[in-house]
Amino acid sequence: MEVKEIDFTRYSSIRIGAKTAVFVIERHDVGAEFVEYQPHTFTSKLPSYSCHNKVQILNNLTLHVPLACSLLNFVDLASCVRYKNDTLYVIGRANNLLVSPNVSNLAMLGESFNYISDIGEYIEMGASVNSLQAFLYFKKYDIRGLEFLKDLPGVVGALCNMNAGMKDYEIKDTLAQLNINGQWIDVEHLGLHYRGRDSKGIIFAARFHKQQGFRKALLHSFSAMRKFHPHKPSCGSCFKNPPNNYAGRLLESVGLKGFAIRDIAFSTSHANFLVNLGHANFDDAIALIGLAKERVYEHFGIMLECEVKICK
Asked: Which residues form the active site (predicted)?
């Protein structure tokens, strides 16, 4: 399995971390191959379409992972896999990730998982397809359900892992199945909920319902939602919204909107966004997250739960 060095001060959206060795998992590492999909119902397939950024476009082919051929051992842990004597934590493209400079045993899926396949009743996407590629494909072929991805960074695997969404729109609403640890699992058994999932294992691919009618009218509202998002390096929403409340409102209420510890701060434009003011470091970010949890709990009795994933 290939190992490459990634500089998280450039690679992660918040620009915090260090140069770190990361394992890159490709299809051949897990013995994966494309096989002909056997549909339950026949639906005419879409014509070939060349999407940008090197996504592979397929017709009627689906990902098959014969577990006996894998170099990896799949385990019942969230986003983890065993390789030799190590447990590797699989990340996406570090858009909602805070990475310690001392972290080790990270892995990511490579470009061989960057594919889109029309399999008749579903559109199947590899976990490495990025959000813009997915959005453009659905827009091109007048398919509804992923309109919010235009304004939401990430890759399909990570977006499904956290059940990403904007306001009332979530990825689980369009999702049909996930390939987890080589097995296709129906959405009702995935345990998807607000910004997370209860099921364990590595997501290799996803299948989405193919429903005609791309909702162009929603695009303006999605862009408007991001109008107040900060333009500085950020990991996106730091905390999940508590039931019937908003993390940003709670943080602002305890005086943390715009509050900084050296070069890490909660944004002045949106209190729930952790931003890098220039040369922020991991320890200060952890300290600010801890302070926020403490203040909100003291004032409101609510324990905030991190939406950002922390890799120590």
From this structure: 195, 237, 307
